[in-house]
Amino acid sequence: MERQGPILEKLTRRLAETPPDFLDEPRIGTTGRVFVPALVNDLLSLYGARAPAAALMRFHGADAKIDRNRLALAMITVWLLADEWFVSVKIPQADALRVLDETVTELAAATAAHKFVNDTDRREELARVVLARLNYRPARETIAQATDRLSSLSSTERRRLLEASRAAERRARAIREALAKKAAEESADKWTRE
Amino acid sequence: MSDLVTDHDRYPTLTEAGRRMLEFMREHPAAPVYRNQSGNRLTAADIEALRIFEREVLEAAVGWSRGCMPSWATAFVARTFEDVPFYRALGSPPPRFEDLPTVSRADFAADIARFVPDSIALDRLINFRTTGTSGHPMLIASHPMVAGRYLAFHKRALRRFGVDLTHGGGQVGVVLLGHQRKCFTYVSVTPTMDESGLAKINLHPNDWRDPDDRARYLDALAPEVYGGDPISFAELLNLPITARPRALISVSMMLSPGLRRRLEERFGCPVLDVYSLNEAGPVAVFDPAVGGHVLLQPMLYVEILDKAGHPVNVGERGEITLTGGFNFCLPLLRYRTGDYASLSFSPEAPVLTGLSGRPPVRFRTESEEWINNIDVTHALGQFPIPQFGLHQRADGTVILRLSETALPLLDAARAALKPLFGAQTIDVEVIAVEDKINQYTSDLESSQP
Questions:
Q1: A75 CA: distance to closest CA in chain B (Å)
Q2: Which residues, in sequence order, are CB contacts of A70 under 8 Å at separation 6+?
Q3: d(Cα B148, Cα B146) in Å, to the nearest integer?
């Protein structure tokens, strides 16, 4: 976060105004319409050079149950990174790819992609995280302020997600136990049995 | 939910009359050995809610305009993505319904807990087990109210055939028949039918002190409806029963037109062939007048998909895929059933045509032409055979699998297959009484169209 980046609100507004094309369905197998490797490649062209095919492999989806949310967030992040400020500073290709892959995977693990468009705090989180991973901070903020705000946003969210994930595990265990009980096994009357 | 289950848990609203009905069914001199216990588990509030649900189901229109989604679908998808862990992990709902990923038995079998909504309280959860023939045993999360709701759809189906159920207090509403070595059997009462009796019994002689007790007992119960499958109904035909039910409801397996006719003639009542799954309940009832299974559920959207998961054109065959349903413990979003049919639209409701439980299989004739398994269904459907299957070996020879009770029809069945298979060898295997088989199989390459 050593370098000054753009004004944060410019990025969050851009996210809020993400065009429908970038919220459309990523192509996975034979479903969906947006071929994400091509979208990523177009962004990298804006930065100056197209990517080698191997670098784009991560953006081919194989299984919707695993890849869908990650690719949906990659599309939104491509839209963010196509802002004229990012284009003007010529983000190195390797850095852009790292954000689109690792950072997006991390964020998509627990939050629905479109929340980074529809929810104020998540918009701010995505903008700040992307800037930070590219070693920038929002304009008019000191390193300390930017670090503090990012950590506050992220740690609150991480705590929430961790708790949600623990609760989800507890819940799944409770369901399995409830279904295994004698009363559940005895079931209840249906007028026909399949 | 404690692990100790009492009769109060099984029949929370049981009256003295209901208790007498249970006693009558359990303690009749010709009663079978009841091996298990279960009940309706319905509270007074549940019963009231079920009555309202039943009225709504009977009055509601079923279906949607061709080419359009049902009006409730968008909100249902959004709610499911919010409330169900499996879908929450997928991210945001897609803008187009067709982009929703499909799920199958394998997903449910892997971990059903991920499909149970967060908003469901767990203290009254029950399960229905299903084995099927797909190799994916499943535990279906359910609730006494969901089980109770089945009756609303049966009534809708029965009304189609002019039957309005009337049995109430002091009478038996339904006897569910099995014919297996091992079968879950018990007695209960149906509170929404004034505690009419419900008995789930096994016709296999092992469950009776004297096999002749079967007819004596069923005549004493004189149920308004028999529920069963083609195997148990074929056994019912062998019993000298004199009491007449008002309807038979067959589920679980394909009911041949021949067996349906025999049952109708013998019992003088409509025989309903209901397409029903543990995952979704009663989906559709066969109506000869429209030549297919007419959909029954107002909140169930049916798509027909190809192998890649794309909707096929109206009238083309594909996999029956369900969205919605009445089991609030297991909301279905594009659930691929593993069953196949085409979909057409009658003025009253959508209709599944050519329903079959497995992917289509082609068979090679002597003259090297391919015929569809539906041709075999038509050739053998005229006979009152409870269950049959056909397998083609790699050398083109054919094995006809028949239930033991159908062996007297073997020559006629072979003759019916002759126009299809010519001089090709047709061997015969007997299906064990408790087996549910994959009806059509083949070792030949290109047998899957």
A1: 13
A2: A104, A105, A108
A3: 5
Q: Which strand (E) or helix (H) includes residue B417?
A: helix B410-421
Q: Which residues pair with B352 in a beta bridge?
A: B293, B343
| Of B238, B237, B240, B243, nearest in space to B224 by CA | B243
Nearest to B325 by CA among B143, B109, B98: B143
DSSP H or E segment with residue B344:
strand B332-345
**What span, in angstroms and rounded, lies between the C-alpha atoms of B449 and B362?**
7
Query: What is the structure's pLDDT at B130?
Result: 78
Alpha carbon A94 to its chain centroid, in Å, reads 18
Contact B239, B214 (CB under 8 A): yes
User: For B8, which DSSP code?
Assistant: H
Give the architecture (CATH level 2) of B362-442: 2-Layer Sandwich (3.30)
H-only helix segments in B161-280: 213-221, 230-237, 257-267
CA distance linking residue A1 with residue A132, whole number of Å: 5
Place of tokens 């229905």: B128
Q: Which residue of B has its CA nearest to A24?
A: B95
Q: How many residues in chain B? A: 449
| pLDDT beyond 50 at B295 | yes
Indicate the domain borders of chain B. 362-442
How many angstroms separate the CA atoms of A75 and A71, rounded? 6
Closest CA to B320 of B337, B306, B332, B308: B337
Contact B406, B420 (CB under 8 A): no
Which H or E run contains B284? Answer: strand B281-287
Across the interface, do A112 and B91 touch by the CB < 8 Å criterion? Answer: yes
> Between B136 and B333, where is the model more confident?
B333
Q: What is the mean pLDDT of residues B395-399?
A: 92
Contact B247, B270 (CB under 8 A): yes
Task: Decide which of B194 and A157 is more confident.
Answer: B194
Q: Which of B127, B274, B306 to mutate to test the interface with A (most CBs of A within 10 A)?
A: B127
A113 reaches B (C-beta below 8 A): yes
